[in-house]
Design brief:
Rossmann fold; 571 residues; alpha/beta; Gyrase A, domain 2
Length: 571
């Protein structure tokens, strides 16, 4: 059981015994939790509700408190409780972790959870803006799977619609050999087709005709479309491989897959009395969505020209995910500008009965900016390809590793760089609050100082390096953990807070909370490493400190892996 849960239960019980009319779980402020010091600050609120004196209530709580895990409990200020954990208790809990492959983190009651992330538009290559949805979504997936949930990865890609008309018309002018060459650079191909569409009316007419033929199932255009989509997905997989993302082609489900469900989806909306016609379009108007003028905002499900917009496709996807996949919840990792759209999608879906007691949630995120605070674009205003950023990350990481550890062979340095580069990119993303914008800065993300992936990866190598220098196998170390020094106690308590950090992260799906925990763990280990000799210690103290090093390495490695970041043994 987590320390926080034990404290909550014990203090709440003691508050009830002490006469508090309400005894809720107490919110704690861990002023110095690294030393086993917790602070209970819910007593003043309980005293106010009970009409009693806070210090008197606190005195009664201490008298009634049954908390063997604490070495002492003190009343501070107007009614706070300072709780000092017992070193013996902390050592006992750590001892259990030494033989637990899951580091004390229990499996949860499994739910089927769909995570919709990455979701590029297949007409073009993935760009830097896709880093956030891809990294955040993949980290969430890994954490949920680690806790035992049945996770459905889904990349809801844009693979249908009018934008593909010019691409297909352009493909139709090429022979088989030229098609492969042209599609090697999707961005260039997209620009050529778009330019031809704008400047050549004859071609534009063919492009519009291509869309109609595609939607009517023309075999030739379906074949060209499938070839284009397959190539686009291969481009995505190249990015995923470079960044160690767990998405694969089998997880892709495009807008086109719901095409045959759209009419039935709208028919159900009609049956539920939700559809109204407005200027030739079919819309759903809900009272909770109004513009600044107070007028209802339409959720357009079929345009006046008969086409189906994103609203219809997303509603069909919700319907499919509940009725066919039987998900308990669905998380949409999509940018903040789409907030209103998803609010409407989920509201309409609930009104239509597509969603009952399932939890459908939008997880918005901010933008990636350059150092000047502007959107991350090339000089000519084009989107920066994500694969180019990944390649540059490896190049820069190789330079950093070569400077820091030139004794490694070139092959070793390149292998390390292939871990550090992608890890630095993803951690720079994940360590920021999900909802805020952040500045993309190479020097900061590749630094071995501060809250960065290289700093944490280096902390892991230091912990593992102890065993390498002593020619010891960490898995064979035995002994009893004892906590004499403050730095040992600090490290022990921090190691026990791993599960709390993971739970806090998934409460609102904020990976930066896990990042902060790992950064604090690395810093706490650094203090321990510098003040508590390990290999120079003797007897049971040496064995205890070796066990602490092993637990630290395992926790760092596990935590980073949940963020989608690998570790190396030397760097």
């Amino acid at each position: 059981m987590k320390i926080s849960t034990i404290l909550d239960q014990a203090i709440s019980t003691a508050m009830a015994k002490a006469g508090a009319k309400e005894a809720p779980a107490v919110v704690r402020q861990a002023s110095r939790p690294e030393f086993g010091h917790y602070q209970a600050n819910g007593i003043m609120g309980a005293a106010k509700r009970s009409g009693s004196n806070p210090r008197e209530l606190a005195t009664g709580v201490v008298a009634a408190l049954d908390l063997p895990i604490a070495s002492s409990v003190e009343i501070a200020g107007p009614g706070f409780l300072n709780i000092h954990l017992s070193p013996a208790y902390v050592a006992e809990q750590l001892q259990r972790l030494t033989t637990d492959q899951r580091l004390g983190i229990e499996l949860r009651q499994a739910k089927k959870i769909l995570v919709d992330y990455s979701s590029p538009n297949l007409a073009k290559e993935m760009h830097i803006g896709h880093l956030r949805t891809t990294a955040i979504g993949d980290a969430i997936v890994r954490m949920l799977e680690f806790l035992g949930h049945d996770v459905v990865r889904t990349s809801h890609v844009g693979d249908w619609g009018a934008q593909f008309g010019s691409l297909l018309a352009y493909l139709d002018t090429l022979n088989d050999q030229d098609i492969g060459t042209e599609l090697s650079d999707l961005e260039a191909f997209y620009r050529l087709a778009s330019e031809k569409f704008r400047n050549d009316e004859t071609f534009a007419a063919r492009a519009r005709e291509a869309v109609v033929k595609l939607q009517n199932g023309d075999k030739k255009y379906l074949s060209l479309w499938e070839r284009f989509i397959d190539e686009s997905i291969r481009h995505c997989e190249t990015v995923y491989d470079a960044l160690d993302i767990s998405l694969a082609a089998r997880h892709v489900r495009g807008e086109s897959s719901y095409n045959n469900d759209l009419a039935d989806t709208l028919a159900e909306l009609e049956e539920n009395g939700l559809i109204e016609e407005s200027d030739g379009a079919l819309c759903v108007f809900l009272d909770e969505f109004r513009g600044k003028d107070g007028k209802p905002l339409p959720a357009i499900v079929r345009k006046s020209d008969g086409g189906y917009p994103y609203m219809a496709t997303d509603l069909a996807a919700v319907r499919y995910r509940v009725r066919e996949l039987h998900v308990d919840s669905a998380l949409y990792v999509v940018g903040a500008p789409q907030t209103l759209h998803f609010q409407q999608v989920f509201a309409v879906a609930r009104k239509a009965g597509f969603i009952a007691d399932q939890d459908f949630r939008h997880l918005p995120f901010g933008s990636i900016l350059k150092s000047d605070g502007k959107m991350f674009k090339t000089r000519d205003g084009a989107d920066v390809k994500l694969i180019d950023v990944a390649d540059e990350a490896n190049t820069r990481a190789f330079e950093v590793v070569s400077e820091k550890n030139p004794s490694l062979s070139e092959n070793e340095r390149r292998q390390v760089a292939r871990v550090i580069g992608p890890g630095a990119m993803k951690y720079a993303e994940l360590s920021k609050n999900r909802t805020t914008d952040y500045i993309f800065d190479w020097d900061t993300m590749l630094s071995f100082d501060g809250n960065t992936a290289p700093y944490l990866q280096y902390a892991y190598t230091r912990a593992r390096g102890v065993f390498r220098r002593a020619d010891l196998n960490a898995g064979t170390i035995q002994g009893t953990i004892i906590l004499y020094e403050p730095a040992e106690m600090a490290l022990g308590v921090k190691l026990l807070q791993f599960e709390e950090a993971l739970d806090a992260t998934l409460e609102d799906y904020q990976p930066n909370l896990l990042c902060n925990y790992l950064f604090e763990l690395a810093g706490t280990f650094s203090t321990f490493y510098e003040t508590c000799p390990v290999l120079k210690a003797e007897g049971e103290l040496r064995q205890s400190r070796l066990l602490l090093c092993d637990l630290t390495a395992r926790t760092l490695q596990t935590g980073l892996s949940l963020l989608g970041i690998k570790t190396v043994e030397q760097m």
